[in-house]
Amino acid sequence: MNLEEKVMGEMKEAMKAKDEAGLRGLRAIKAEIIKAKTDPGAGGVITEDGELKLLQKLIKQRKDSLEIFTQQNRNDLAQKEQEEIAIIGKFLPAQMSEPELKDAIAKIIAETGASSPADMGKVMGAATKQLAGKADGKAISAVVKELLSK
Length: 150
Prior knowledge:
mainly alpha; 74% helix; 2 domains; Hypothetical Protein Yqey, Chain: A, domain1
């Protein structure tokens, strides 16, 4: 079952339960799927990797908005963003814990032979490919900086 089918099933359940927050998040995912399918070159099909990137993009957008709303003391809007993050996050694979992330990046650093912060680009390229969907880009970047500056 692909992402679109899962989202449609969840939407039906949310409509029956009159879950406005869930419906809002699911509609956002569905809109992005439709948009991605109609992009030139997509051929009306989204790969599993494409679905993962799409979900991560939606989460990132909402986290950025959440941060802004929190700074501006707009708790009503911040609450909506948090609800949507939770709904969209259900479709992502489980995220790595910080110790797991550090172990994985330490292995990548060893594989690439990186030794200084100047090698960060090389490590980030390999890390983002290997850890796609399992960790946030900001978290990966922070751990890579930390480990390379030691």
